Amino acid sequence: MGYHRGELKRSVKSLLRQTKPSPMLVTLVFIAVASIVPYVIEWLISSPTAILSDFNTMEKILNSNDWSLISAYLDSRAETGAGINTLISIFLTLFTVVIEFGYLGYCLKLVRGEGTAIGDLFDSFGRAGWIILLYLLVTVFMFLWAMLIFMAAGAIIGIISIFLGSTAISVFVVMAVVVCIAAVVLFIWVVLRYAMVPFVFLDSPEINVLEVIRRSKLMMRGQKQKLFVLGLSFIGWYLLALLIFAAVFGVGMFLIQSGNFLTDALNTKAVFYLLLVVVIVAYLVSMPLILWIQPYAVGCLAQFYRLISEQDTHNSPQNHSKPGEDPTLRNHTPRRLLSDYEPKPRSSAPGYDPEKHAPKSKPESGENRTSSDQREDERPR
Questions:
Q1: How far apart are CA 170 and CA 113, in angstroms?
Q2: In sequence order, which residues have a C-beta less than 8 Å from that of residue 133 and are 6 or more positions away?
Q3: Which pTM does this prediction carry?
Q4: How far is CA 311 from the centre of its chain?
Q5: How far from 164 is each of 151, 155, 160, CA to CA, in Å?
Q6: Sign of the torsion angle spanned by Cα atoms 339, 342, 348, 352
Q7: pLDDT, tens digit, 9 for 90 and up, residues 239-255
Q8: Which of 15, 172, 180, 252 could make a disulfide contact with 278, Cβ separation 3.0–4.6 Å?
Q9: DSSP of 189-215, one letter per residue?
């Protein structure tokens, strides 16, 4: 049986159940490190005395119930701390990128049946510099592609408006929408070219970053549609998590606004803290589903990479060269579609039966040998 998206997802779910420590626990650590540690770093960079002073000032403004003072205070803070806040944001973004590479490496080990541990999340920090350089290059390339695509779309819409004028507004709107949709689809196609960049880098740390990007683009030839459909299959789960969060938050807002649990003496400060509590509760209620979706979705992405990388290895020039032919002189490497690929059974794969897949041994005793075997032995050499 060849590759099938449903089979891929079922294999990843089976691996998630078998892997220890639990991928949900590892994902919880990853989310905590990626979200909590940045705030701790920001606290350490900023002056604790200034932060406490800000808290006291904010408390006085909240107790005054004057929202104009709050707006003026926030504006003043934005003006005075714009430079340092920008530097902190850049640093925290790069920190998150590095830890995300560690999480991708963990998921790649998971789908390969290799030993996994929570410490895998931090393996990427040893190559943080190269990861940041790779991230910046991919970001620049995608930005340039976005500029090119959407500027071309704007130019096309402008030309359409010149030809149609104001006589066919409805036709112009329809054509403009079509052009915008085409531009978005083209941009998604460009982004998918770089989808395998992190995995290629994790698998081949010795090659330079430009070669990593080139290999990702080569691997994704003919595979973009499959990966796009695979990503779309998880939208329902993410929408469900968002719906749970919105439902809990909506109930909390309704209780606050209805006043059933509030008193007339409730001031603006109390409302602010109640809103904060509602957001935290909504986040915690939706968290179990998020902890299940994250390793599931990223694991499927890693499994997709594993399949097409093994396919590329199978279709490498060395495996297709004729006797006496120099593989480096081959200009075309035949590719096999991912739908034609059949994963080989591995000892770590779910449902693998060693006895079933073990090679059959030849009978040793003469009693169990077939007549054809005996005739083969009697034939003159």
A1: 56
A2: 209
A3: 0.71
A4: 22
A5: 20, 14, 6
A6: positive
A7: 999 999 999 998 888 87
A8: 252
A9: HHHHHTTTHHHHHHH-TTS-HHHHHHH
